[in-house]
Write a structure and sequence with these properties.
The chain has two domains: 8-471, Cytochrome C Oxidase, Chain A (Up-down Bundle), CATH 1.20.210; 553-715, Cytochrome Bc1 Complex, Chain D, domain 2, CATH 1.10.760.10. Helices cover 62% and strands 2% of the residues. The protein is built from 26 helices and four strands. It is globular. The relative contact order is 0.10.
């Protein structure tokens, strides 16, 4: 009997909304990236506190990842899921809530980050109210997506759906557990983790934010849109299965490779390295599967700009996922860590893989969504070549900069001394490369402007009213499809035949649970030992909590984004200990909520900053870095000597830290008075040395107190207090 057909229509209006958001936020994110690139080469562009590099850099990363990348994911997922599942989205209301909620989150990020409200965690800087909003909107998206699967008319789940499932599930887990914190104000919180544990959780999240936000969902887009554009099926179903399950299981282990030679236990970073190296196999399996999908259609690449974007995007994915495992190897990482090499690696993936795939998807979607021919294929070609040459210029310059940094930092002269003891010598060597990066970024953005013009003109040619096609499909059958062969006898034969996976695809709940098990089990194998084995973080008797004033100064350090340029983690290499002092120990950061080890050295490491310079030096340096070090590219912070310090607000922050287990003693009830007393003494010392008067109630005093404290505890013994800071002149700035 012929199956009854059901009539329905797809919701393309929500897809159009997400695509326009992708386009607009992409331009914003790229422009902010260009601004901060220019700020490094031309520091005079740091025009105001809210327009300084330290505050704009996280705005750039969040805009590109979550605004541009996020909206691109939702664009492709909403379009492809409806067609792959042969049903309209579960709820138009949830779709609208998802769209407007996500845009509101982006706007909140754009307002709060330049104002200095940040958790200081890479890719997780947004404060607790926004984190809660993200969780709510993500849950709404998940309900809408899984509800759509539940009402599907297609029995089997296509490969793109697998990647969407893993992405939605894992991003939720990562976001919730990394962002667990205790509020200390409307836009201030402290992570429940500290030091080593916080660093581990952050890079468990940070690396896998790249994995499950910038990789797996975009692979889902690749598996749908590339075959559509090429008019060819995916090359290999078996390779798709291998690609998916190995990627999901292996990726989650890799985060600790960001912490080689730090205070993280060596076993954890080594384990991360091993799994990172193994990631080459599934990653390249996916690249091969994507490129071989074009078999028999390569001639189209010459004439179809969409395919050009897809081919180069997948190639960039392959190159980036080869380089990533190579960078995870300890010997390579010892040179690359903290350098611009990492920045080049990230941008190969972001500009090449995510950017070009998104552009290609939008070019393919535009005629279908706007129901008008693409305005100009020629302009799309121009965009492709501008983007390609822009990427090449960008990454070539920054690869050169990164390797130059690493080699100069570790260079010794014939007498066994550091060949470049002044950090700024390295900075100056990089200036030509930074300008080449600016040129590459300008080309990429120029291509983006042409892309936007092409999209706008295509939209302008749309019909007065969009046609809403009515689609027909039979309801979901409970019976096996005719092509579903019975499972072969024998466990090994059944494994090779992959009929078991066909059965999994008919069971979305079971499929989701298996993906969750792969992610959770892999995570727990690293997380539990890190948190439960006390030997991983041995205590140091001389390490004490920050005083209330120092805690306030630390929060100002975080607000100004200093952690974006300065690390606080000295690795156990001779060239680092000679330059900065004794290497960092796990027990030094037990009271650091959050950790501030850093991931990049635009300026020198500050882990042993205390005692290097007198307090007055810090006051003068923060007011005008180039007055102290003429070649410095550090922004000035004169407002710190003008802004009044909120002494009353310190009490709440101390209370929260005490709640998290920091032994504050009397400070729990007397924090403002203790902070005023220390601030008055420090301000008097600054004035006696010839500095300005009237700083006792200003933010600069708190920041100086914090900087003077860094590294002092480790110099003390268990029975003796930390020594008073000694005066030592020396070069500064970055």
């Amino acid at each position: 009997m012929e199956a009854r057909l059901e009539s329905f229509s797809y919701d393309d209006a929500i897809v159009r909304k997400f695509m326009w958001a992708t386009i607009i936020w992409g331009l914003v994110g790229f422009l902010v990236g260009l601004i901060i690139a220019i700020q490094l080469a031309y520091p005079a562009l740091n025009l105001a506190p809210w327009f300084a590099f330290g505050r704009l850099r996280p705005l750039h990363t969040n805009a590109v990842i979550f605004a541009f990348g996020g909206n691109a994911i939702f664009t492709g997922a909403y379009y492809s899921s409806q067609r792959l599942l042969k049903t309209r989205m579960f709820s138009d209301g949830l779709s609208a809530f998802h769209f407007w909620g996500w845009q509101a989150i982006i706007v909140a990020a754009a307002l709060t980050l330049p104002l200095g409200f940040t958790q200081a965690k890479e890719y997780a800087e947004l404060e607790w109210p926004i984190d809660i909003a993200i969780a709510v909107v993500w849950v709404a998206f998940a309900i809408n997506f899984f509800g759509t699967i539940a009402r599907r008319r297609e029995r089997h789940l296509y490969v793109a759906i697998w990647f969407y499932i893993a992405s939605i599930l894992t991003v939720a887990i990562l976001h919730i557990f990394n962002n667990l914190s205790v509020p200390a104000g409307p836009l201030k919180s402290y992570s429940i983790y500290a030091g080593v544990q916080d660093a581990f959780m952050q890079w468990w999240y940070g690396h896998n934010a790249v994995a499950f936000f910038l990789t797996t969902p975009f692979l889902g887009l690749m598996y749908y849109f590339m075959p559509k554009a090429a008019e060819r099926p995916v090359f290999s179903y078996k390779l798709s299965i291998l690609h998916f399950w190995t990627l999901v299981f292996l990726y989650i282990w890799a985060g600790p490779h960001h912490l080689h030679y730090t205070a993280l236990p060596d076993w954890a970073s080594t384990l991360g390295m091993l799994f990172s190296v193994m990631l080459i196999a599934p990653s390249w399996g996916g690249m091969i599967n994507g490129l071989l999908t074009l078999r028999g259609a390569w001639q189209k690449v010459a004439t179809e700009p969409v395919l050009k974007f897809f081919v180069l995007a997948v190639t960039a994915y392959g190159m980036s996922t080869f380089e990533g495992p190579m960078l995870s190897i300890k010997t390579v990482n010892s040179l690359a860590h903290y350098t611009d090499w990492i920045i080049a690696h990230v941008h190969t993936g972001a500009l090449g893989w995510n950017g070009l795939l998104t552009f290609g998807m939008c070019y393919w979607l535009a005629p279908r969504l706007f129901q008008a021919p693409l305005h100009s294929k020629k302009l799309a070609e121009v965009h492709f070549w501008l983007a390609t040459f822009g990427i090449l210029l960008y990454v070539a310059a920054i690869y050169s900069a990164g390797i130059t940094q690493g080699l100069m930092w570790r260079a010794f002269d014939e007498t066994g001394r550091l060949q470049y003891p002044d950090f700024v010598e390295t900075t100056m060597r990089l200036m030509p490369m930074y300008w080449v990066r600016v040129a590459g970024g300008t080309l990429y953005i120029t291509g983006t402007v042409i892309f936007i013009y092409n999209m706008f003109k295509t939209w302008a040619a749309r019909p007065a009213t969009y046609e809403v096609p009515v689609v027909q499909a039979p309801p979901l059958s409970a019976q096996p499809a005719a092509h579903d062969a019975p499972a072969p006898t024998g466990a090994f034969a059944n494994l090779l035949s992959l009929t078991w996976h066909r059965r999994w695809e008919r069971l979305p709940l079971f499929f989701t649970v298996m993906a969750a098990v792969a992610v959770i089990v892999a995570s727990l194998f690293e997380i539990l030992p890190t948190f439960l084995i006390k030997s991983n973080v041995p205590t140091i008797a001389s390490v004490k909590p920050y005083t209330p004033l120092e805690l306030a100064g630390r929060d100002i350090y975080i607000r100004e984004g200093c952690f974006n340029c300065h690390s606080q983690m000295i690795r156990p290499f001779r060239h680092e200990t000679e330059r900065y002092g004794d290497y960092s120990k796990p027990g030094e950061s037990v009271y650091d909520h959050p950790f501030l080890w850093g991931s990049r050295r635009i300026g020198p490491d500050l882990a042993r900053e205390g005692g290097k310079y007198p307090p007055l030096w810090h006051v003068q340096h923060m007011a005008d870095p180039r007055a102290i070090s003429p070649k410095s590219i550090m922004p000035p912070y004169p407002h710190l000597a003008q802004n009044a310090l909120d002494f009353d607000g310190i009490q709440k922050r101390v209370d929260v830290m005490a709640m998290l287990g920091v032994p504050y003693g009397d400070a729990v009830t007397k924090a403002p008075a203790m902070a005023r007393e220390q601030a008055t003494a420090l301000a008097s010392q600054i004035q006696a040395a010839g500095g300005p008067a009237g700083l006792a109630d200003k933010e600069i005093v708190a920041l100086v107190a914090y900087l003077e404290r860094l590294g002092m505890d480790i110099k003390a013994t268990a029975s003796a207090p930390a020594p008073a800071p000694t005066v030592a002149a020396g070069p500064g700035g970055r």
